[in-house]
Amino acid sequence: MLILKHVEWQIKDVEQLEGLMAHLKHTTAQVESVVLKDICFVKGKNEFVLFLECENEARYQQWREICPPPPGATDWHEVLLSRDEYFLN
Q1: pTM of the model
Q2: CA–CA separation, 34 vs 54, rounded Å?
Q3: Domain boundaries, given as residue ranges, for the chain
Q4: Tag placement on the chain: N or C end, fewer CB within 10 Å?
Q5: CA pair distance 88, 37, nearest whole angstrom
Q6: Are 65 and 28 in contact (CB under 8 A)?
Q7: Other C-beta atoms lying within 10 Å of the C-beta of residue 63
Q8: Coil, strand or helix at 40
């Protein structure tokens, strides 16, 4: 499954982005079957979206416990199921 983790928070510059990416790679490596696929930015907003591939939502929650959003940030997530996952349910 794919998890879209939205984070309402401004990344100020490329250096801060690189630090965040290093942190995300480190924390996702700590939870089996959680892989950071990409990061995108919402046009016109102080918001970014992480694309995480996860075995299940429980693994995502396990990762979120060790990698909460930055202080003062708001976050939420969406779960996207593949066709196979969708029709199994």
Answers
A1: 0.92
A2: 5
A3: 2-88
A4: C
A5: 24
A6: no
A7: 22
A8: strand
